[in-house]
């Protein structure tokens, strides 16, 4: 990433960035547009403009080709930050158990009260924050099952379920199939985490 001084900078907030592959791809594509990427993280990119200023419309069009979009409103930015924090906690930090409660993590990460975060999220996503977290957990469980490294009891403990039965019930409620059916069936039915 270039950190040249004397370049006009802008911070872009991006919807649906959910993995490190997105970071690499979007950095490359922004540089192809003539932008200087100063800093990049999930959902947020600091760019510098060279001699030619690239329009937000051109940036948005490029992002749209990859299923991403610019975020404009303050509340939409907050919703994306919530999603990224949940994805980090469940999929990347592997700290999904009760060591850190999800609500405490979000409050600390975003600096806002959990009731406010939950309200904004529900209004914009038409599902509760709790439901979103559960769906992300189930997707992570699918990956853990597919890895065949852990017994279901270990996965239940890792994912902060009080029992295998509770995990199994929630798995069936979200996916429409039992864990056993999932294990014996087509395991390619995982969903990209940015679409959940």
Automatic annotation (TrEMBL):
Highest taxon in the source lineage: Bacteria
HTH araC/xylS-type domain: residues covered: 106-185
One MF term in the entry's GO annotations: sequence-specific DNA binding
Keywords noted in UniProt: DNA-binding, Transcription, Transcription regulation
Keyword Iron attributed: no
Cited PANTHER family: ARAC-FAMILY TRANSCRIPTIONAL REGULATOR (PTHR43280), HTH-TYPE TRANSCRIPTIONAL REGULATOR EXSA (PTHR43280:SF2)
Name listed for the protein in its UniProt record: Transcriptional regulator, AraC family
Sequence intervals crossing the membrane: none
Record-linked InterPro entries: Heavy-metal-associated_CS (IPR017969), HMA_dom_sf (IPR036163), Homeodomain-like_sf (IPR009057), HTH_AraC (IPR018060)
Keyword Transcription regulation assigned: yes
SUPFAM superfamilies reported in the protein's UniProt record: HMA, heavy metal-associated domain (SSF55008), Homeodomain-like (SSF46689)
Pfam families: HTH_18
